[in-house]
Known about the structure:
The strands form five sheets. The chain has a 41-stranded mixed beta sheet that branches. A seven-stranded antiparallel beta sheet has the order 8-9-12-11-10-13-14, with no helix packed on it. The chain has a six-stranded antiparallel beta barrel with strand order 37-38-41-40-39-42. The chain is mainly beta. A hairpin with a 2-residue loop joins strand 11 (157-167) and strand 12.
Amino acid sequence: xxxxxxxxxxxxxxxxxxxxxxxxxxxxxxxxxxxxxxxxxxxxxxxxxxxxxxxxxxxxxxxxxxxxxxxxxxxxxxxxxxxxxxxxxxxxxxxxxxxxxxxxxxxxxxxxxxxxxxxxxxxxxxxxxxxxxxxxxxxxxxxxxxxxxxxxxxxxxxxxxxxxxxxxxxxxxxxxxxxxxxxxxxxxxxxxxxxxxxxxxxxxxxxxxxxxxxxxxxxxxxxxxxxxxxxxxxxxxxxxxxxxxxxxxxxxxxxxxxxxxxxxxxxxxxxxxxxxxxxxxxxxxxxxxxxxxxxxxxxxxxxxxxxxxxxxxxxxxxxxxxxxxxxxxxxxxxxxxxxxxxxxxxxxxxxxxxxxxxxxxxxxxxxxxxxxxxxxxxxxxxxxxxxxxxxxxxxxxxxxxxxxxxxxxxxxxxxxxxxxxxxxxxxxxxxxxxxxxxxxxxxxxxxxxxxxxxxxxxxxxxxxxxxxxxxxxxxxxxxxxxxxxxxxxxxxxxxxxxxxxxxxxxxxxxxxxxxxxxxxxxxxxxxxxxxxxxxxxxxxxxxxxxxxxxxxxxxxxxxxxxxxxxxxxxxxxxxxxxxxxxxxxxxxxxxxxxxxxxxxxxxxxxxxxxxxxxxxxxxxxxxxxxxxxxxxxxxxxxxxxxxxxxxxxxxxxxxxxxxxxxxxxxxxxxxxxxxxxxxxxxxxxxxxxxxxxxxxxxxxxxxxxxxxxxxxxxxxxxxxxxxxxxxxxxxxxxxxxxxxxxxxxxxxxxxxxxxxxxxxx
Length: 761
């Protein structure tokens, strides 16, 4: 009976997987609805408009108020998108356009208008810097001249800001002199001709000037107490031989008991300690200089050298600065610095985190990397579990395993200007609104101390100008320079829509890991429509009800799903940007491992690494449906090949691993732009190493390299344009799994097989 019931539940999913690709498309009764468009489109390039109610042979796209049309290249037979070409004679800039169907013309929509997705340092004082992260922020990216402006607006009052740095995805500006109040942040990329306001969930306001003596560059620095108390009166000697543990801890505890809290200041010297130093909330442990103040740990193995205690665990409000930490003997701590919450339920339940305002600045961790790891003595650098406001700046960590491993922060994490050197694990960015820039990561994978990765990224992260080298070992599945992966998240449930009543979806044929919304390690659980009406819409989930088989979402739908729609509920990796980073001699490269949506990997350099990958997987047995939606892989330079897999390229991997029913029920990928990349390989091509998830092929690719044929397409709208391919055995590899795949403007020099078309699924 239970088996029959199981088969009954799977039947709707199986039927949908077979019938949806061939379902007849009813003629629309309303004009097209626009959901989004391609970004940073130059004249002469492809533009894809995503939405609903487009019609093959009927839909047109034109510039609003003109008779200038955008010639149609492809219209989705199901009406979800249309791709056209911007006329080469069109002046570069922001385009106002409209699309038609048999009912009429849509409302006007803009292409290339600036869009601010999120703000870092959103409550600053005059003279501090705010960072904006988004899209289309530099006119030069789509053929114009850089002329980006920012202003703060309150009512009719406008305060121009000084822009200090700009690229297509980020703007830094100095807060102008203005009243301390709330503001709307507005951006213009055309010198003030038109302005776009940030309209996201983060408030922006300015505040009274505060104190930031260490130059953290964040507004919350002024919430710390910077009054200094010397450690010498508490009996610390700093002579390198006396045990200074009790003296330093006495100073910490005494400052905690005083009204205002503050800084325990350690003059230059070597402070031998034999057990952990423990920081309650309100305490900063600060040395005189990074090289001159030395904490020498000479205690038992395991545990931590510096950690939070009492209200420091739940409130945070602690910092460590300007010192070197090393180990005197052969006993190593497990984690040198352990700050914020303990590694408990707060790890898997982000909404239970409360600690905030934690920093580590100008600290050197100097461990022996090549050593045997004793049980409980991994030699990790830093672990932080917190709600928000964490800064890791200007540090040098030389650790056995992981500079910053298994850290979980909800919002606002800055990892900048550090050098991390280690043999295993990674540097973790799990926070929304996180910044990692100007860091160097040096791997020692040859020591074989476990998986070695660079940055692991979740949602809404900006990674810029990082240099990552020498990661990956043949004995491990590792070696990414930067990877966005859903480890600890992934798919919660998937199925089909029966009906929709406003924000409540009644669903059927559901496969579920669980129906629990509280177990989110980062971000919030979201619902994504992966086929049928409303495809591509993402909506935060506010309630799950397994008894009623309903999913309630937070926002109204622009296009209401219906019984043709299928969905997943998952923790998305939203809007991350990897820009102008360098990967050298890494087994893999710049990876979107799955569940990435609205991300960008652009202008990066891959030298003797695997290049750039957007990955997708469907595995019903493991309840996985890992998608890649609206991601851009653009203007990357790839030379050489991976030292392990012996391949390099840029592309989209499709891996449907369903050999029998239930077959795949939706699109793993939607809206992939592979544009302007330059790939230079070697000939003859070396023997392939079969090492990683990346397809065993060089060049550009968008195809199923593993898994099983589903006898239906599993990807939509792939634009492969203006790529330069040199000295390769294969140029562009594709199969029949992607509807609406367009190749245009690509050039080939010394490529044995320029177009490697696979005539199958």
